[in-house]
Amino acid sequence: MDETQVFHPELTSRRGELIAWGVTLLVGAAWILLLSTGREVHFAVPFLAVVLLLAALSISLGNWMDRRTLLRIDDGGIAFRNGLRDVRLAWERIKQVQVLPARWGKKVQVVGEEANGQSAHFDFLTLGEVKVLGEVKGRIGFREGDRILEQILERSGLHRVDKEHAGPAAQNKSYYYARD
Q1: pLDDT for the residue 138
Q2: What is the rounded CA–CA span in Å between residue 145 and residue 105?
Q3: Which band of pLDDT confidence, cut at 50, 70 and 90, is reported for residue 2?
Q4: Greatest alpha-carbon span in the chain
Q5: Of 170, 50, 177, 171, which Cα lies nearest the Cα of 112?
Q6: Does the pLDDT of residue 170 top 60, yes or no?
Q7: Cα dist. 117→78, 152, 161, 178 in Å?
Q8: What are the DSSP calls for 74-135, one per residue?
Q9: How do beta strands 106-113 and 94-101 pair?
């Protein structure tokens, strides 16, 4: 029986994105006002405007990708899509899974080869909680991230590489799985 499971990451509040755009517009408006009144504009104003614009764009792109991200598991393999990346890997074509510590949760990198022979990879975060002063302010990553990782390892037949063969990766608490 081919049971398809579809997973989506936790969605963060768009409040930070709105604040970033608001501050960017405020600094941009101040810059335009200074220019239009003929006043001297300190170099920090355009610099700050550009930095804020890049930050707002980055936050918006991240939110856009999160809202389009899905991870699909079925008997044939795993598929990952996020608006920029679209990867489909059969279980036997997954070559390696790396698990790296992240600020919130764990970062899981899946590396393999698509049916057309091209190298492919994607990564996802297991569930992480953003805490401020001990209070949970948000969640990021996949709520079922650990279960997804377990299924990938079980279905692909990968095994954990011994620490003595892991080299520097073992020193930063990252580890990986590969074929025998």
Answers
A1: 85
A2: 9
A3: low
A4: 73
A5: 177
A6: no
A7: 16, 20, 25, 18
A8: ETTEEEEE-SS-EEEEEGGGEEEEEEEE-SSSEEEEEEEE-TTS-EEEEEEEB-EEEEETTE
A9: antiparallel
Q: Catalogue the long-range contacts made by 173-179 (C-beta closer than 8 Å, 24 or more residues apart).
A: 173/101, 174/98, 174/99, 174/100, 174/101, 175/98, 175/99, 176/96, 176/97, 176/98, 176/99, 177/96, 177/97, 177/98, 177/99, 177/153, 178/95, 178/96, 178/97, 179/95
Q: Would strands 128-132 and 70-74 be described as parallel, antiparallel, or unpaired? A: unpaired
pLDDT tens digits for range 97-156: 999 998 888 999 999 988 777 889 999 999 998 888 888 888 899 999 999 999 999 999
Amino acid at position 7, single letter = F
Q: pLDDT exceeding 90 applies to what percent of the chain? A: 66
